[in-house]
Protein 1
Amino acid sequence: MSAGLAESPTALADRGELALGLPESYLAAGHTLGSWLTSTDHKRIAILYAISITVFFFLGGAAATMVRLELFTPKADVVGADTYNKLFTLHGVIMVWFFLIPSIPTTLGNFLLPLMIGARDMAFPKLNLASWYLNILGGLLTASAMLAGGIDTGWTFYVPYATVFSNSAVSLGVLGVFVSGFSTIATGVNVIATTHTLRAPGMTWFRLPLFVWALYTTSLIFVLATPVLAVTLLLVVAERAFDLPIFDPARGGDPILFQHLFWFYSHPAVYIMILPAMGVISEVITCFARRRVFGYTFMVYALLAIAVIGFFTWGHHMFTSGMSPFAALVFSFLSFIVAVPSAIKVFNWTATLYRGQIGFESPMLYALGFVGLFTVGGLTGLFLASVPIDVHVQDTYFVVAHFHYIMVGASVSAYFAGLHFWWPKVTGRMYPETWAKFAAILMFFGFNLTFFPQFIAGYLGMPRRYHVYPPEFQIWNVLSSSGAAVLAVAYLMPLGYLTWSVLFGERARNDPWNASGLEWRTTSPPPRENFLGKPEVLAEPYNYHPEGAPPVKDQPRIPAQGSLT
Amino acid sequence: MSAAEKLLLREPWDGLGLPEESALARQRAGATFGIWIFIASEVLFFGAIILLYTVMRLEHPDAFAAAARETNLVYGTLNTALLLTSGMLAAVASRMNEGAGARRTVLWCLAATAGLGLAFLAVKGIEYREDIGRHLVPGPGFPLPQPPAQLFFAVYWFATAIHGIHLAIGIGLVARLAILGWRDPAFLPDNPQVEVSLLYWGFVDIVWIFLYPLLYLPGRAG
């Protein structure tokens, strides 16, 4: 690294380039706190979201740490039953609504959607900023519920416990989730309108990067599922505050209706978490395999199919709640059907790797980890979709392990894959690759060590949501808690080296990975206007090699210079 | 670029590099499209309430009929008339606003729309007072013997209150347009905000068209 370059951390620069009088980057457009908090620049709002979801992630992670610490031994020795209930509720509520659901769409999505389609900003920049404030307001309300004594209902807020019996701060926490729902609806409206109205000339629907398709389908779920949760939660508040007995069985109300409405949102919410992750993985795998994505149109239709069919599978959460055998059969069948497009995606990623010149840079390690963890999570989902097995493992750690494989293993791996992949574009800096590779591998092993034993403990019958358990389950819990410690280190490492890279990292080139997307055809970091001219799209996406041609005879890849083909 | 268009054109539409006319047309199309998506979201919001109502009414048809007979048909019908009239005026304002020249008509229509909305809320307030006076609030002292009748009134209070909040937001939006348009002659003509706000108003209207028969008419035929 040559010394003596006068570098402001936010100026535009590529060390190989001369000063060309290019426009200043979005990071240099203002250095005051006010310039961030009132910015309507989608890139700055993405950074705001990234900071807030990181805070929520570590808050939810702290609660999970306490839970795993308590479960190290069969007896209650760290916390009591009541505190334990409040801890896992806090963990679930914060992680689901304030980390996982906003994670990829509002950070990477916000930053990249206009760049990927060649737009200057989102369609409604002020709405975009407002959505962040709504998210923060919701988060503060829910966090204040924790200060007001916590919530002990579990993240599902099942009635009549949450309405009639619980003496904890349910209303406050539920209102926080309600407010954050409007934040995601605003994001959804913005993404859909932006994709429809602001695509650059030549960026046809079937030239959109799969990440944009993933954001688009996610936003459909945002817009159509979130309001149902909003009403349901508002009814919980109405019943607690004004004694409106919608779900009160004593007066003819139906608690099962709550479950139907809750899962009508909360099952699609899983697809809110996984669809953007699939989009990220499609970008990363194509780039580091130097291949066009296998079956682009099928990948698009698979995203749409998951989004649509995902709306009709909610009943598989309720097989044991009281449901006719016919309804159970239908929901079971639909749950199997939704696995088909998911499997198409896994097979297509694998086929994309075939004859690729695969590089194992850190984003690719995270992405390959995603494929493995998603496959395990998806296949165990099929176990749970079949009624007899579901009845056997209902409310056990098998379920916990299954949804953590999808929501944490897959989604969070993809979030980190995307974070590392686009970090040079976002910050204009390179991170230390060795550390990043180490963290990626550690995360994969830590995750499996934490959650694979839970499949076994759950299958053997260990119920979830208890702070004590029979001693024969201890071995699985010790393994799991040890894995959680490894996982915690793996999550803390990026916080360290990515922060370091912002201050001391090497300058990033405009396109350090030699990737094909439009977002790389501008400076790193991009200027406020995103592009220097008016972008126009002339080719298909993932243009890594001539169509129909075999790959060039293997050339050695020089990772420091990106990928050669 | 004329002063009015400069006023109306917002980011990111001003950066498209298009002539003002077509940039403004795309901005209007984008804004209208956005509010339609939001309305789709709202349909699911009220759809969930109507689903709850449907399931509970199928489970307890007699109690729901008995409870619905306790609502005040006069106030409900009067409110329906007020809101439908306001919806007509909103549609007139939206259509007349395409192109300059009808500013006074648009202003009058907007003011009347907001005024009728306020009248709706006033009637609703009187009706609420009467309902509370007759203890038609779920809980101890509820006049009807069947417990599920309280379910009907739970839905009644919840749905009308949520609708009232939506209407209050609508009144705020329309009144804002009327005030800004009255102060600045260049504000209203061709402004996308007019159509966006009035589409929202139309949606709140339609919700009431569904709520009225569900809440006021059961048990009253024959």
Protein 2
Amino acid sequence: MAMTISEKLLARAAGKKEVRAGEIVQARVDKAMMDDILGPRIEIAENMEMLGAGVWDPDRVTIISDHYTPPANAKQAEIVKFTREWAAAHGIVHYYEFAGPCHQVMVEKARVSPGELVVGTDSHTCTYGALGAFSTGIGSTEMLGVLVTGELWLKVPQSIKVHFEGGLPRGVMAKDVILRAIGTIGHNGATYRAMEFCGTTFDAMPMDERLCITNMAVEAGAKNGVIACDSITRTYLAEHRIPEGVSFQSDPDAQYCAEYSFHASELVPLCACPHEVDNVAEISGAGHVKIHQAYIGSCTGGRFNDLKAAADLLRGKKIAKGVRLLISPASREVWEACDKAGILSTLSEAGATILASSCGACLGIHSGAIGKGEVCVSSTNRNFIGRMGSKEGDVYLASPLSVAASAVTGILTDPRTML
Amino acid sequence: MANITGRVLKYGDNINTDIISPPAYMELSMEEAAKYAMSPVDPEFALTVQPGDLFVAENNLGSGSSRETAPLTLKILGIRTIVAKSYARIFYRNCINLGILAIECPETDRISKFDVCSIDTEAGQIQNLTTGERYLCGKIPPHIMELVRCGGLVESLKHRLGV
């Protein structure tokens, strides 16, 4: 029977030769990831104690304190402390803090390999599909079940094929590609489904950009996003000493519930306007939107490629008066690579403030919240009402290049006017 | 659990997890955080809601984060049953795992705030006792009903582990 890559991944996890979309399988988890905000503190620690159960396989579990680092107050500090102590008490050696947002750390620290089933207590766990894994976000109680049994039930999703053909025009980044897809498919158009990204556009995309694509699959409601392994994947695996795992490809006659095709040559810089991710417009047509904050960071748009693109645009320029440009490299490793390449100094000379590698600003819990009536243009993944602070503030999502260009002019700006 | 009757609190499309459980309050205890549930669209929610109320919304309920704090704070405030036209998948699973019944009904736009509705989960029908209307609703798949009957995943794990 012909299968999609997602079906093959779940067949492997279920120990079956084949599975079909719609089938419910009991799947064995290869890796589990928890963060600080939704990890042990929520429904997990207390219930595990009550059940008198231990972690099924501590070596398969990673815990990353990333949302509340550095803590903004004593309550956040207590949560990080609790998470750290819980990890130690349960023999979790793969514990990280102040290392950066969990999804970048998981990939860089070789905690995910192609072919694996990975679940995490963060909706953007779907990021690891860029490495050819089946990864998806789960809630805390669901994680409790995984920690105790090493398994969970999953309905095998139908797949949507998202096909992009051709090279990206100048000034267009992966963020524009995924916003174009979500704008077309809709913010619930892929609910319960897998998004499989293919075509020559993705074939030519570096891993930093692919991770941005799969990261946002959940913003169309998808269960997982996936890109098949190729030579770019293998180079990335080798560079990060990630075990090769198992590579799957969809069969040529596999069944898809929908197919979308785009020509990359027609893409322009886009933005997602408040307060939904599928509220997508061309950034040049979004009107005269004055901005107060520009943010480049997170598991979506804070990688080396992102900061380099921003620095290349900002070299020799200054950000507009009254605008704050905040930069949070997606990990310590990204920070160090950018530092060595002189990217952080270029950004700083343009007037940017370099922040710790953290989730803080993306969801308005520290390091860059916005106030009433303020507007932020951000390279992150969500622009829901109140997401980055005041519910009377506005968030526009855009590529790191567009964020950098907007920081220079003080209004939402098409970066092609500055390249 | 054949019939569930309750007063309705009604919301529209795209009630996402940042609305149900605003991130700014997630560092609080869940009991404290529950006071701010739904506050971006309805600051009075925590004062209005009564145990046993039916939380009714329209399309794409619970989109966004995996945060279980969204259904958990609703549960702390006494919500045991949710009805919506459609759900984001992680939110749906979180409800089930917490023992909250999440029912799909394509006609929730006909239901208003403070209507009293009676849900027959086995027949797959909702009766609006205030307006006299009847709506069809989705039946709960058996493997999910079993989890909800148990009282959620923790109770089911207790059973499985013999605690």
